[in-house]
């Protein structure tokens, strides 16, 4: 059970009366309470530069300890810390090989043994060696447990006593759910867990169990694992995590991704948008950007109300293929068609063009028609946005648009969104501008998020 005790007082009735609907207010209150739950009230441990920081990993077998050890080592190494790994797991066959492989790939010095069977000896030797060599981040991986097995717990305690870690990290799999509280507590009772890392948040699990782990260990979540690769790893951020938990999408993450793309450099597009113009080529370029953004599901998962349900249907590949198909169709268009500010009209005036493009790209004329319909809808929205006076002035949308204008825009977008992927993707340029609005002020502000959630 989640240690969730929602007080009525958390719901501000006056604010409610001011016009926001009940559902939103309750969501807001739940959100605030959940944020409190992942805050154990103690500051997260951080390593000290120039010192030998020893970090020990504990957790159930398969929770992702070995993977996460490597990720953390890699994280600090990239930040310029002198980092190393020690494998003190003699329980699981192949444990040392696994760590060795990860470490070698990332060029991280490591220590372990194929012959020594006592994890306490390996851990002590490794820590001593690396301390002498002035390593700053010394990470010790230990063996996992399927459940609370006394002998293994004892072993964990002995390792901890021998190496006296500065930080003990409890690694938990996001999907473990209900069982989490008891498990986390069992670990905490034995050794002094001070941090939590939640893994496998790239999957369907939202990580609700993490709340229990925080409560049980009184330790903050410091990082999250979002994939099997060494850089699928992020410092923990409360608001996006809770948003995901509530199925509201990760606005901040989306902003980061979009910013990474440096779409801002795309002056020409912004200039056109200002005038409400949007060509087929612009759409093509937006698709290219989306492809560049990498794992599709990651992006989709960040869009409010669009995350987990969609992904659980497992049609990421389908969406990607769809996008590619649309781009193939546009590849068969000529410059005149691509660059017209009313691309659809060029085609409707001379329907022969549709046949030509269909033939050229190996699709049906209906497919081409559909693409043009999507394009038209999007171009219409751009036109509306361009029509809002001064919307893009000074590059900061939030200062230039009133609440009611924003609401209208939202409505407009909402109308356009259908469950089909293209709409969402096509809406990306608009979304980007809206993101900026969130970034300025409203990021982390629930009212903003909720409004957005209505899309
Ligand atoms: P350990 O037994 O605790 O050391 O767990 P491992 O590090 O061996 O991980 C168990 C499995 O989970 C491996 O297949 C990892 O690739 C996988 N894994 C670990 N972290 C993540 C993650 O954040 N996302 C995903 N998708 N898989 C992960
Ligand atoms: Mg392991």
UniProtKB/TrEMBL annotation:
Q: Which GO terms describe its molecular function?
A: 7S RNA binding; endoplasmic reticulum signal peptide binding; GTP binding; GTPase activity
EC code(s) of this entry: 3.6.5.-
Question: Which Gene3D superfamilies does its entry note?
Answer: P-loop containing nucleotide triphosphate hydrolases (3.40.50.300), Signal recognition particle SRP54, nucleotide-binding domain (1.20.120.140), Signal recognition particle, SRP54 subunit, M-domain (1.10.260.30)
**Catalytic activity as recorded in UniProt:** GTP + H2O = GDP + phosphate + H(+)
Residue intervals of the SRP54-type proteins GTP-binding domain: 220-233
Q: Could you tell me the keywords of this UniProt record?
A: Cytoplasm, Endoplasmic reticulum, GTP-binding, Hydrolase, Nucleotide-binding, Nucleus, Ribonucleoprotein, RNA-binding, Signal recognition particle
**Quaternary structure and partners:** Component of a signal recognition particle (SRP) complex that consists of a 7SL RNA molecule of 300 nucleotides and six protein subunits: SRP72, SRP68, SRP54, SRP19, SRP14 and SRP9. Interacts with RNPS1. Interacts with the SRP receptor subunit SRPRA.
Task: Relate the protein's function as given in its record.
Answer: Component of the signal recognition particle (SRP) complex, a ribonucleoprotein complex that mediates the cotranslational targeting of secretory and membrane proteins to the endoplasmic reticulum (ER). As part of the SRP complex, associates with the SRP receptor (SR) component SRPRA to target secretory proteins to the endoplasmic reticulum membrane. Binds to the signal sequence of presecretory proteins when they emerge from the ribosomes. Displays basal GTPase activity, and stimulates reciprocal GTPase activation of the SR subunit SRPRA.
Q: What is this protein called?
A: Signal recognition particle 54 kDa protein
What is the organism of origin for this protein?
Pongo abelii (Sumatran orangutan)
Q: Which gene encodes it?
A: SRP54
């Amino acid at each position: 059970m989640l240690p969730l005790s929602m007080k009525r007082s958390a719901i501000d009735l006056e604010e409610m009366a001011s016009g926001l609907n009940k559902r939103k207010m309750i969501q807001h209150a739940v959100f605030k309470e959940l944020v409190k739950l992942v805050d154990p009230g103690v500051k997260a441990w951080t390593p000290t530069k120039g010192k030998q920081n020893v970090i020990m990993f504990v957790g159930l077998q398969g929770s992702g300890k070995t993977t996460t050890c490597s990720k953390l080592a890699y994280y600090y190494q990239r930040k310029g810390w002198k980092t190393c790994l020690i494998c003190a797991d003699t329980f699981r066959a192949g444990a040392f090989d696994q760590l060795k492989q990860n470490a070698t790939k990332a060029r991280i010095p490591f220590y372990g043994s194929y012959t020594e069977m006592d994890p306490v000896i390996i851990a002590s030797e490794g820590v001593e060696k690396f301390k002498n060599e002035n390593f700053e981040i010394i990470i010790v991986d230990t063996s996992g447990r399927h459940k609370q097995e006394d002998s293994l717990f004892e072993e964990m305690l002995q390792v901890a006593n021998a190496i006296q870690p500065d930080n003990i990290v409890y690694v938990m799999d996001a999907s473990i759910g209900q069982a989490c509280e008891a498990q986390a507590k069992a670990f905490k009772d034995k050794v002094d867990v001070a941090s939590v890392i939640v893994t496998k948040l790239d999957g369907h699990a939202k990580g609700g169990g993490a709340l229990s782990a925080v409560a049980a260990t009184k330790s903050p979540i410091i990082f999250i694992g979002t994939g099997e690769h060494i850089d699928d790893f992020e410092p923990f951020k409360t608001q996006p995590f809770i948003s995901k938990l509530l199925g509201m999408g990760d606005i901040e993450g989306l902003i980061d991704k979009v910013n990474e793309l440096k779409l801002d450099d795309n002056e020409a597009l912004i200039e056109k948008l200002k005038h409400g113009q949007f060509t087929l080529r612009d759409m093509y370029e937006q698709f290219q950007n989306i492809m560049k953004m990498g794992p599709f599901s990651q992006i989709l998962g960040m869009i409010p109300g669009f995350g987990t349900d969609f992904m659980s249907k497992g049609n990421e590949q389908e969406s990607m293929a769809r996008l590619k198909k649309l781009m193939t169709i546009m590849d068969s268009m000529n410059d005149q068609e691509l660059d017209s500010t009313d691309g659809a009209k060029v085609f409707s005036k001379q329907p022969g063009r549709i046949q030509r493009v269909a033939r050229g790209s190996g699709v049906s004329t209906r497919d081409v028609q559909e693409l043009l319909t999507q394009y038209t809808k999007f171009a219409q929205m751009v036109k509306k946005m361009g029509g809002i006076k001064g919307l893009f002035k000074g590059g900061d949308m939030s200062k230039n648009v009133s609440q009611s204008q924003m609401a209208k825009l939202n409505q407009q977008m909402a109308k356009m969104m259908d469950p089909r992927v293209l709409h969402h993707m096509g809406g990306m340029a608009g979304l980007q501008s809206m993101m900026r609005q969130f970034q300025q002020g409203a990021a982390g502000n629930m009212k903003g998020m909720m409004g957005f959630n209505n899309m």
